[in-house]
Amino acid sequence: MSVLIGKVPVDPPLILAPMAGVTDRDFRLIIRRIGGVGVVTMEFISSRALVGGYPKTLELMEFCEEERPLSIQIYGSDVDTMVEAARTVEQLGPDICDINMGCPANKVLAGCAGAALMGDLKLAEKMVGSVRKAISIPLTVKFRLGLNDTCRNYIELGKICEANGAAAVAMHARTAKQMFRGDAEWPEIARLKEALSIPVFGNGDVRAPEDALRMMAETGCDGVMIGRGATKNPWLFQQIAARMEGSSVTEPTVADRRDLILTHFQRVAEREEGRFALHKLRKFTGWYTHGLPHGRKLRQRINELPDVESFLRAVEEFFEEILEEAA
Ligand SMILES: Cc1cc2nc3c(=O)[nH]c(=O)nc-3n(C[C@H](O)[C@H](O)[C@H](O)COP(=O)(O)O)c2cc1C
């Protein structure tokens, strides 16, 4: 089962959602190596920072061949800056460029970027059309249902994207005001799919393989985009792909989990500096140990550990303990 975004095959039709502070190159590679993912997306990139050539931003944008197909998401409110940023993105050579019109964070909204564009469809239209003309790789747009319940204009925005040359859209089926509250409203994904001819990727609350199959069956969407579900279970894409092929789903063993966590954490430790590395490791430990025996004890313990070395030792000991208990 495969979907085309422009000429890029998305096979299987599953996309790793952009997540700031999460979908960095280490995490993208982990997901890609496990398999079952059609496209991986970079965390969002500020068009202003990109055009300004900030070293930290350029560093965030490094990727390797093994990650392909890869999408780079940019955000901003100024059309000329977005055009220039998209041109720079294209030069870096990703497969897809995505525009963020769904971010509800105040910092982004205050700059009239992200979901704020859903409150100014004229600007959104100009942005999609201008960026489209500036680049030759496929352009996609990710948005929400609207700004709030009184402004649910996702069908209008979807049509604008389609008319201005977007190759596909992804919709997180909540309003910006909702942030992550309540349930994602999948029936709205079905409505968007009905209204458009370009591929529609449904997004929101896919946590298990059955959720992805159910979303596709209930909404008719062309593919599924997954964010948080992949942080708690990086095997999720592989499991969904297996279900799509009619194969049975295999659960990772405790040893698989240990290997994945330690490989990921070694990379973070090599790449990031002390405090930042510790912050990232704590965040991922919370997700990765979700549902494991004694996970809570480890999560409490790591809050007190002063450095990366003791952190890694604690994680190793934690797994030794559960593997011994299971033996
Ligand atoms: C930590 C975090 C960071 C996120 N960063 C971005 C981002 O950079 N760009 C974006 O379009 N959406 C971002 N999102 C939203 C996700 O891409 C996705 O739309 C949302 O989490 C709903 O999907 P899910 O239920 O599969 O997680 C972020 C979500 C989370 C939890």
Low-confidence stretches: none
Mean pLDDT: 95
> What are the bound molecules?
flavin mononucleotide
Q: Topology as H/E string? A: EEEHEEHHEHEHHEHEHEHEHHHHHH
The major β-sheet equals: 8 strands, parallel, barrel
Kindly state the percentage of residues in helix.
Answer: 40-55%
Q: Helical segment tally?
A: 15
CATH architecture of the largest domain: Alpha-Beta Barrel
Rg (CA only): 20 Å
Structural class: alpha/beta
Name the strands of the widest sheet in spatial order.
3-4-6-7-8-9-10-11
Number of domains: 2
SSE map:
Layout (H helix, E strand, L loop, with lengths): L2 E3 L2 E3 L3 E3 L8 H10 L4 E3 L3 E2 H5 L3 H6 L9 E6 L3 H14 L3 E6 L4 H5 L10 H14 L4 E6 L9 H10 L4 E5 L13 H10 L4 E4 L5 H11 L3 E4 L1 H5 L3 H9 L9 H18 L2 H15 L6 H8 L5 H19 L1
Parallel strand pairs: 3-4, 3-11, 4-6, 5-6, 6-7, 7-8, 8-9, 9-10, 10-11
Antiparallel strand pairs: 1-2
Helix pairs in contact: 4-6, 6-7, 9-11, 12-13, 12-15, 14-15
The structure holds flavin mononucleotide (FMN).
The site of flavin mononucleotide has 22 residues, from α10.
What does this structure look like?
The chain has helices at residues 25-34, 47-51, 55-60, 79-92, 106-110, 121-134, 154-163, 186-195, 209-219, 228-232, 236-244, 254-271, 274-288, 295-302, 308-326, and strands at residues 3-5, 8-10, 14-16, 39-41, 45-46, 70-75, 96-101, 139-144, 168-172, 200-203, 223-226. The chain has 327 residues and is an alpha/beta fold. It folds into 2 domains: 3-244, TIM Barrel (Alpha-Beta Barrel); 254-326, Non-ribosomal Peptide Synthetase Peptidyl Carrier Protein, Chain A. A hairpin with a 2-residue loop joins strand 1 and strand 2. The chain is globular. The site of flavin mononucleotide has 22 residues, from helix 10.
